[in-house]
Amino acid sequence: MPLSTARRTWTAPRCGPGPNRPPVCCAPYWTWSDPGTVYRVYGMAWFLIFLAATACAFTVHGRRAPTGAEKWGWRVALTGYLLATASTFGDYWTPWTDQSFLVLGIPGTLVSLAGSTLLGITLLRRRFRPRVTGWLLATWIPLLFLLSSLVAMGAAALPMIWAWALAGRALGRSVPGAGRGDRGVPDLVPAETGRPGR
Length: 198
Prior knowledge:
Blueprint: H1 3-9, H2 35-62, H3 68-93, H4 97-125, H5 131-138, H6 140-150, H7 158-173
């Protein structure tokens, strides 16, 4: 059933006392809206998700001393993440949705894909922990096509988001006083040594 048909045929639940009914105070918030508004409100969460993933990437970068290809991978990937984060803000929080997607979204996606692939390969070669971060970044291009064809276009960003969420979690566990020990600590030694350590 198309969304427009569902919108016309379904009715909002009644508020007030009774089984399976929300309280009266929720009545203004418990209604149906047009698909454009629902899409925009749902999309606003993507800005916060991209912001958190970008912050994790910058934090992990700050704890490493990259050289060579890894250094360039970080530069390109972080630039792409900043563009993509700015794009999600412009797409959903401003009235310039199309302009933001054209000027920030497309270049941000392409730069992020290129930088993340290079960065993922170098992180795998340098035995960065958690290893899944490097694998998710290195395989982001094929995963983009797979996820966008099977799930949705928005799901194509999930490998990058999960990669940095897992790296951020491992980094958080490495902080003294976190209470979890040193399991899964990212490799924080200078990249040129090639030895894992702390």
